[in-house]
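Hey team,

Filing this mostly as a record. A colleague (T.K.) asked me to run one chain through the structure pipeline before their review meeting, and I want the input and output archived in the tracker in case anyone asks later how it was produced. No errors, nothing strange. Just documentation.

Input sequence:
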Amino acid sequence: MPVKATILSPPDAEEPAADRRPADASGFVGRRHEIAQVRRLLATTRLLTLTGVGGVGKTRLARRVSEILPRRYREGVQLVELATIDDEDLLAPAVAASLGIHDRTPDLVAQLIEHLADKQLLLVLDNCEHLLGACARLVEQLLYGTSRLQILATSRQSLGVYGERVLPVPSLPIPRPGDRTRDIARRDAVRLFTERAAMIRPGFHVDAANARAVARLARRLDGIPLAIELAAVRLRTTSVEDLVNELDERLEAPAEAGPGRLARHQTLRATMEWSFGLCSPGEQRLWERLSMFPGGVDVETAEAVCPGQGLAREDVLDLMMGLVDKSILGVAEPHGAGARHRMLETIRAYGREQLTAADAEALRERYIDHYRRLVERVRVDRVEPGQIDRMRQLEPELPNVRVALDLCFARPGDAAAGLEIASELWANWLVAGALSEGRYWLKRGLALVPGSSVVRAMGLWADGLLAHYQGDAALADARECLALARQLRDERALAFAVQLSGVAALSEGDVEGGLALLEEARTRHWARGDVHAMAVTLYLAALFAATMRPDRAAGYGEELVTLCERRNATLFRAYALYAVGMARWEQGDWRQTEARMREVAAFWSAADDRWGLPQCLEALAWTAGVRGRYERAARLLGAAHLLWEAVASSPARLPYQARSHLECAERARRELGAQAFTAAFRDGTRLELSRAIAYALEEP
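Output structure:
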């Protein structure tokens, strides 16, 4: 059956695929001197660390710098948030992901160095203190291996790396004794309090009647921004004068004491304890339990995980709003069709300290169960509508899923659940280009789940499949998976094991044997009524057989396109069309290839599919070469090269790309001449992603 020439619609989600970081809803106050110092120091050093107590504003200062300095750097400024990363092994992958490097080589640090070798870029590493040793080692390696990279770090203590410059971030300036009302109002600590107070009590300003009380409050809080913001919330129910009196009692020090009287970390902790004490018992319990969510939480998740042990489900929403009112929980940030609340890391850390062992144990079970069910619900390896929506739904939850995986792997009895979660995410890891992270969790689970079980068999299958996509041999995984499935006599596991064996055989060059195994796997999946697994098998057969049996590959691909259209599976259909396009290329029908790749590239660009995009640009370079558009072909090869580099792969590692890539590059170089080819290729590498896609989609 011929492929229908229908046009793929953009992914079914409202948000753009670009930067989804939450914007700072409140204004930035003060720090002119510190910003000037950062700019001056970055002109003379490659590593600058902003240090200071929690809540003093290191992160906000770093974010402000990242907003105003990009023009100084040819490749801009890249911020990496480390607060949601608790495992040292995920540090380098987090940095790689922020740089657009998703599919990774075994030596990721070497890959990062190669990627950054000649780039003029400022890398901002935020919240390094809980990964201090790992951050220090990575920073040292990156700086040693590159020439123009600069790093701005935030941490409660210095990294201790040779050549590091340290800039302690002070509290905001506070009023001095004897200041007049006008002078008090100009101090940055008071300006911050006034801005936040006006959000609570519209029209609030510093005047002769309240200036002394506001000055006392700013001094009592040592000018610490987080403490000031927590205190300002109290104006909803009390006056400034009463607020200062409450603080005096809480801090147990004379109101006239100077800023050095209490250590700043003690001041912040005392303010945190004060804020905790002002919460109702229910709000306190919810604060403690929400501290388990580094990626933030929506109301539905809080209602599912947090109730119990004295907290009723029907009270969760009101309690969350109470925490929002007290600035413990952030105002809801829109994400897709829902909204999420987040805690500042300092507030979250305090909440974790208050969580009792009994509460933590009960929460642990509900947390794992919730994310186990979520992962099953958002799997994208399903031939059904809403694939992009599910993919986007998982994105903000990944930090929380990592916590669930860590909880599982911390206790032998739950390791199988963790391995099952990691296995079910295989397609999400692939589409996100996070193959190495997926294999990291799979290998942790496989090491903790020995013996004979279906869970282990499926873990081996997922790890083996991702290994093949990375260009690694996975024969050991395939053999053990098949042996386990036969031993267990589990039909589902056996169908997947046969499928993996077929991919392994095709990768080794055994065309007929590999296709026979994939046909057997397809039959087994069909017998079980598993249309989703059957679709995956069709795709693998179409893709891996394209260069060796293009007619059969095209048939598999066309069958999969029809299946996807019938079931409205848009993401799956894009992959099916790509496989058809590759088969048509091998059949010599480059016009069909070009049409399919242009359609799929537009879709994958909107979906931000970094794994698929370089493959599309490659194929469009080949068709440009066939048209005699050699300069365009070279430029597209350059644009694709940049994306291949970002996913730590290359056409040479993919059997269905290698030969055509080499032929296209050699012919374009021969026709243009080495100098002109190199110039066009370099032009392509300089294109930003959006411009590269726009260029690829231009009418040839």
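Quick notes for T.K.: The mean pLDDT is 86. The first strand starts at residue 47 and ends at 51.
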